[in-house]
Amino acid sequence: NGTKDLTGQDWVITAGPTMEAIDPVRYISNHSSGKMGFALAQAAQLRGANVTLISGPVNLPAPNGVNLITIKSADDMLAACQQAMTNQADVFIGAAAVADFKMKAINHQKMKKQSNADEMQLTLVKNPDIIATLASQKGAKYIVGFAAETQDVIHYAKDKLARKGLDMIIANDVSRTDIGFNQDQNQVTVLTKEQTWSSELATKNQLAIQLVEHIHTHFKSTLSK
Ligand code: PMT
């Protein structure tokens, strides 16, 4: 809409996958391209927000006027978020697909194939839950998560909203191959404690403009309570 009504607000947004090293040449990751998070960063910046975008490894150009910080692992992403939110941010959006697990111990040398073994096992341990940690630390006044689900999308999204202590969650059905991971289009359902809104199918850029509007409206309404 051309207005710069987010001027003076600090928005911190995560995007992309995290990459969890197995050894110097191998890693665990996922199909997130960063498109959704980068589109949100650009949409908020165009409305005047001061945007920090913390991204895992992706192949996208930095959005104009956005402070882009690149990281690899979930541990690095958490540390970068906490640094970006030393002064409480206004809005945090977790669009990154954070790996839930990492290696218990990263091998410092390339792991060798055991010629007599048909199976091998890796021991993984839980990664920190970045958004739940930031929510408990009140790192931002308004905290928005995404939920990537393949079944019972709304049910699991509501559960994540409550369990992670979020203000809003944006649910996408990643079992559909036309939307979600790595596609240019997405269709989402936005949930707060009180309200539910389902978007049309749209490009991630168009959707990001609508989502920034929604987030801003709900954030404002919590401030006036
Ligand atoms: O990047 P694209 O190709 O454009 O794809 C977009 C997307 C599908 C990745 C995106 O829209 C999306 O849904 N991102 C969140 C994916 C995800 O990891 O969902 P989740 O249900 O596992 O996690 C729920 C929320 O907790 C997310 O906000 C996630 O960032 C956060 N989380 C999860 C695990 C963890 N250890 N720390 C977290 O902060």
UniProtKB/TrEMBL annotation:
Region ranges (Phosphopantothenate--cysteine ligase): 11-225
Per the entry, the cofactor note is: Binds 1 FMN per subunit.
> Where along the chain is CTP bound?
100, 110, 128-131, 146, 160, 164
Required co-factors? Mg(2+); FMN
Q: Which GO terms describe its biological process?
A: coenzyme A biosynthetic process; pantothenate catabolic process
The reactions it catalyses are: (R)-4'-phosphopantothenate + L-cysteine + CTP = N-[(R)-4-phosphopantothenoyl]-L-cysteine + CMP + diphosphate + H(+); N-[(R)-4-phosphopantothenoyl]-L-cysteine + H(+) = (R)-4'-phosphopantetheine + CO2
- Domain DNA/pantothenate metabolism flavoprotein C-terminal, first and last residues per copy: 6-216
Q: Name one GO molecular function term.
A: phosphopantothenate--cysteine ligase activity
- Per the UniProt record, which EC number(s) apply here? 4.1.1.36, 6.3.2.5
Q: Name one GO cellular component term.
A: phosphopantothenoylcysteine decarboxylase complex
- UniProt KW keywords: Decarboxylase, Flavoprotein, FMN, Ligase, Lyase, Magnesium, Metal-binding, Multifunctional enzyme
Protein's pathway: Cofactor biosynthesis; coenzyme A biosynthesis; CoA from (R)-pantothenate: step 3/5; Cofactor biosynthesis; coenzyme A biosynthesis; CoA from (R)-pantothenate: step 2/5
Q: Which family does it belong to?
A: In the C-terminal section; belongs to the PPC synthetase family. In the N-terminal section; belongs to the HFCD (homo-oligomeric flavin containing Cys decarboxylase) superfamily.
Q: What does this protein do?
A: Catalyzes two sequential steps in the biosynthesis of coenzyme A. In the first step cysteine is conjugated to 4'-phosphopantothenate to form 4-phosphopantothenoylcysteine. In the second step the latter compound is decarboxylated to form 4'-phosphopantotheine.
In Swiss-Prot or TrEMBL terms, this protein is called Coenzyme A biosynthesis bifunctional protein CoaBC
Give the shown range, full length included. Answer: 190 to 414 of 414
